[in-house]
Design brief:
The chain has 653 residues and is an alpha+beta fold. The chain contains 15 helices and 25 strands. The strands form four sheets. A nine-stranded mixed β-sheet has the order 1-6-5-4-7-3-2-8-9. Strands 18, 19, 20, 21, 22, 23, 24 and 25 form an eight-stranded mixed β-sheet that branches. A six-stranded mixed β-sheet has the order 10-11-14-17-15-16. Helix 2 crosses helix 4. The radius of gyration is 32 Å and the shape is elongated.
């Protein structure tokens, strides 16, 4: 209890020669730490080990850690309510190769604390147990290590006032506070990465540090992390993080399907004696595919060995488990990093590559996936290879060469598996289909384009189309003219957005000409189940456009239009949009329907207000989109209530 200050290296040093040897040893340790997130990882790793050790002894104990990132003071604080230190442990744990870790603890034994104490110039450490309590700081550690003149005195730990005030509120645990001050340190500035809020740092820490554990089918160690961020101007944001797990891409990127579920659906179709290549539309135009595997899945592949004998032995020894994600474009990563996380320009928190992990913790930077064919696909593939109880190299920077080789070999196989299923993903461009009129009606469209340019309809008042919250049409449509009136009112009232009418003419073969338009602000077009249920996915909101003019057809019932097709009065391939009150029943004889009002098919809606895509049952290709007004109105009144009807009517046939 009377401890005041001491030299944490004293027990290891018996002569100046030994002192020089220890300094070189520390320098070698520090050289292995070059990453921006290394101090975060070591601080959090120590806290996780502490709470894990206490949890093994006390089943009623609730693990908790507190993290404060202070950009104004350039300080990282991590406090835990774990086992704490005894006095003997506390006096020696900063020395190299001194460790109190168990065999299955995270990270390399006996170097992390040395890195924190001597890789920087200010580290405060504190512990609190029933038998021993102390808070002290070591100053100038890195400057002493880099001093070749011998003029700097070896730093001691001196008693100090606790920096992370939450430590005063716990009765058992440890606290570490690291200030980025002085010379020779890396990183020098917490602001470099560009994260300034608790939401940004939550993402960063879950991907780049042990806070984002790799648990797969195991229980997560921690569900109680209190994160505080203070920005450069002193503004504080706080959040309780309950999901202390790695951010798997499919959990933050919409419209993804597990590869195993696709194969399971195909097996169901085969049992029903249906074509397994014709899956429901919800399985197509995806942003990404993902899947989980274990080492047994890579032993045999198509009758050939996917792993050689040495790799197989390593896979079995370390019980590897694998996660893979495959997206249609690198723009997926760009959008997530730049539009969601919003860090420093060019910073990539999630991207393509192979992440190695051991003992539930990601370690080191992403490795390249060494594809020899289809090389571009390595940039859209994210693979995690987890080893049980593997020892990373010094400073947790990497793994032994044979384990890296195995991981890259497995990641290559994962990428190749996904490439075989890429037909389920969106096209690279993501742009809506081009709409081009047939030559037989070219002149009519051209005349209307000229009329549009010469005689535009311009209304400058912004208050004339404010919603009245009720339709002026008081009853459901009874005929085609009622459908036209209702549709125009829905357009004018902003219920349906982005369709511009150019002409309506009952004397022509078809009813009208229109354009799809997509204008800023994009938020008006983006799907939100509560505020904008007829919207499109945010990934489609990339740039403004006006489509080419094309043909619009009105009908009370879609049945009537099908009859005109059968009689040869109209050509279904010339029509690019159908507006009808009801779907009818005749569609089942010649078409398949993608119900855009079912949440699973949101990715197929490429314009605001679309309710159905009509597809040729024999060819499987899209004929035209439709807006069925009766189903649209039921949907906007209660989107959840119509899901069962949409599924039973159009999907579960």
């Amino acid at each position: 209890m009377g401890l005041k200050n001491w030299d944490p290296l004293k027990a290891s040093l018996s002569s100046e020669l030994v002192s020089a040897t220890i300094k070189r040893q520390i320098r070698n340790i520090l050289k292995s730490y070059t990453g921006y997130f290394d101090p975060f990882s070591e601080l959090i790793q120590n806290a996780l080990d502490a709470v894990d050790n206490r949890k093994q002894k006390d089943t009623k104990y609730t693990p908790a850690i507190w993290i404060k990132i202070d950009l104004k003071e350039n300080t990282i604080c991590v406090t835990d309510n774990g086992v704490g230190f005894s006095e003997d442990q506390f006096k020696s744990f900063l020395a190299p190769n001194v460790s109190f870790k168990r065999q299955d603890d995270r990270g390399n034994k006996g170097v992390g604390a040395t890195y924190l104490g001597y890789g920087f110039n200010f580290l405060q450490i504190g512990t609190k147990t029933p038998d021993f309590s102390f808070v002290g700081a070591i100053r100038g550690g890195r400057e002493w290590v880099e001093d070749d003149s011998g003029t700097k005195t070896r730093p001691k730990i001196q008693k100090s006032k606790v920096i992370h005030d939450v430590f005063d509120e716990i009765d058992h645990g440890s606290t570490f506070s690291l200030k980025l001050v002085g010379d020779f340190i890396h990183p020098k500035d917490l602001k470099w990465v560009g994260a300034t809020t608790v939401d940004q740092w939550k993402i960063v820490l879950r991907v780049k540090t042990p806070l984002g554990g790799i648990y797969f089918n195991r229980d997560c160690l921690l569900s109680n992390c209190h994160l505080t961020v203070i920005d450069e101007d002193g503004r504080k944001t706080e959040k309780l993080i309950e999901e202390c797990e790695y951010i798997y891409p499919h959990k933050v990127i919409s419209t993804c399907i597990e590869l195993d579920s696709i194969m399971k659906k195909q097996e169901e179709l085969i049992k029903k004696r249906r074509d397994p290549s014709r899956l429901p539309d919800s399985y197509y135009k995806l942003n990404g595919l993902y899947n989980y595997w274990n080492y047994k899945d890579f032993v045999l592949e198509d009758g050939k060995k996917a792993l050689n004998t040495e790799d197989k032995e390593l896979a079995e020894k370390y019980k590897i488990s694998v996660y893979g994600f495959f997206c249609y474009s690198t723009n997926i990563w760009n959008n997530y990093n730049d539009e969601v996380v919003k860090l420093r320009k060019g910073t990539r928190i999630l991207s393509g590559g192979c992440q190695l992990a051991t003992n539930c913790m990601p370690q080191g930077e992403l490795l390249m996936i060494p594809l020899t064919k289809h090389i571009g696909y390595q940039n859209v593939t994210h693979v995690i290879v987890h080893f049980e109880e593997a020892e990373p190299d010094l400073g947790r920077k990497g793994f032994q060469p044979e384990l890296k080789h195995l991981a890259q070999h497995v990641a290559t196989n994962v990428a190749r598996k996904f490439i075989l299923w890429r037909k389920f993903l969106k096209e690279e461009t993501g742009a809506p289909p081009d709409i081009i009129g047939e030559r037989s009606i070219h002149d009519w469209i051209r005349e209307q384009e000229d009329h549009e340019k010469e005689n535009p309809l311009i209304i400058t008042r912004e208050d004339v189309f404010l919603p009245l919250k009720e339709a002026s049409i008081t009853s459901e449509p009874l005929n085609e003219q009622d459908v036209i009136a209702l549709f125009n009112q829905l357009l004018a009232g902003g219920v349906i957005r982005g369709i511009k009418l150019m002409a309506t003419n009952q004397h022509q073969q078809y009813d009208g000409i229109f354009r799809f338009c997509f204008k800023k602000p994009f938020e008006n077009h983006i799907f939100d189940k509560d505020k904008n249920p007829l919207g499109i996915e945010s990934s489609k909101a990339t740039e403004e456009y006006d489509s080419a003019p094309d043909i619009l057809e009105y009908k009370y019932s879609f049945d009537a239009l099908i009859e005109e097709f059968e009689k040869g009065l109209k050509n279904e391939r010339q029509i690019k949009l159908v507006i009808a009150w009801e779907m009818g029943d005749e569609w089942q004889k010649r078409y398949e329907i993608t119900p855009l009002l079912h949440f699973d098919n949101l990715q197929h809606r490429y314009f605001h207000g679309g309710t159905h895509i009509i597809k040729d049952a024999s060819m499987g290709d899209t004929v035209f989109p439709a807006i069925i007004l009766s189903e649209l109105i039921e949907y906007i009144n209660d989107p959840d209530d119509v899901q069962d009807y949409q599924r039973k009517t159009y999907i579960d046939l």
